[in-house]
Design goal:
This protein has 287 residues and is an alpha/beta fold. 35% of the residues lie in helices and 17% in strands. It has two domains: 205 residues, Vaccinia Virus protein VP39 (Rossmann fold); 60 residues, Orthogonal Bundle (Helicase, Ruva Protein, domain 3), CATH 1.10.8. A seven-stranded mixed β-sheet has the order 3-2-1-4-5-7-6, with helices on both faces. Helix 4 links the parallel strand 2 and strand 3.
């Protein structure tokens, strides 16, 4: 995704032309099919970039830069090198103007963000920062959370989601939003919502509020196999209204033995099981 509010008409950092001028010159318009909502407010892009910093020697990977509002802010805030992945070839000309203004600091990759080998994009530490297209935000996140080996090459993810997805990522056990995404995200990272963003900040404005989420990788997550953890949570939350003795029956007696050892009653429901308990059940199934 990438909208508009204050400071839209002023010059961008480094005397680049205003984004509205760039968009008009290149004939850009946000396409719903690509999940695009352009973020043009320089105050807001600067705030996101500052929240993602401070920057050192890491390479920043940005997904879906569009006309480059956040890209400009990242470079202005001191990102040494930004690798921007953009599927929409209409935006490449606008991004090339930014690359020319910051020689050697912006690399453009025209392609599908879901098809990239993120481990091969940069040597050393990376940081993924993006105003994610709504339609691929969750698949991208689960792909990064599934990185092997762990800890991954990235030291932090700073990403924009629909607020409802952000709340699912950060949800605590016992809440309605708690589910498979929360377990996967919190098993391997420490996620938190940094701030919400109004629909009015985007062009065109989406129908929902957005939020910026930071996810910091855990250096030593609870020991279990990702595939097994996903199998356990799929069983548990696939029938979340049912008690665990019903929803977890397909996992066999080892799962129930682990639950008994952990003090998880078979009459409980999935949303009452902590991330640590789900990890312990998954680990027991593999031992």
């Amino acid at each position: 995704m990438n909208g508009g509010a204050s400071r839209l008409e002023g010059k961008a950092a480094g005397n680049l032309p205003p984004l509205r001028e760039v968009i008009a010159r290149h004939g850009l318009s946000a396409r719903k099919a690509l999940g695009q909502n352009f973020l043009l407010d320089l105050n807001l892009t600067g705030r996101i970039a500052r929240a993602a910093g401070p920057f050192g020697g890491e390479t920043v990977i940005e997904i879906g830069p569009g006309p480059g509002g956040l890209t400009r802010a990242l470079l202005e805030e001191g990102a040494r090198h930004v690798v921007a992945i953009e599927r929409d070839n209409r935006c490449i000309g606008a991004l090339e103007e930014i690359a020319a203004h910051y020689p050697g600091r912006l690399t453009l990759i025209e392609g599908d963000a879901l098809a990239q080998d993120y481990g091969a994009l940069a040597a050393g530490t990376t940081r993924i920062i993006a105003n994610l297209p709504y339609n691929i935000a969750t698949p991208l996140l689960t792909g990064w959370l599934s990185s092997e080996p762990w800890p991954p090459a990235f030291d932090r993810l700073v990403l924009m989601f629909q607020l409802e997805v952000a709340e699912r990522i950060c949800a605590a056990p016992g809440s309605k939003a708690y589910g498979r995404l929360a377990v996967l995200a919190q098993w391997r990272t420490v996620p938190r919502i940094l701030f919400p963003i109004s629909p009015r900040a985007f062009t065109p404005p989406p129908k929902v509020t957005s939020a910026v989420v930071e996810l910091v990788p855990r250096p030593g997550p609870a020991p279990c196999r990702r595939a097994t953890l996903e199998r356990v949570t799929a069983a548990a939350f696939g029938q979340r209204r049912k008690m665990l003795r019903s929803s977890m029956a397909s996992l066999g007696e080892k799962a129930f033995a682990a639950m008994e050892m952990l003090g998880v009653p078979e009459t409980a429901r999935a949303e009452r099981v902590s991330v640590e308990q789900f990890c312990a059940i998954a680990h027991a199934l593999d031992t």
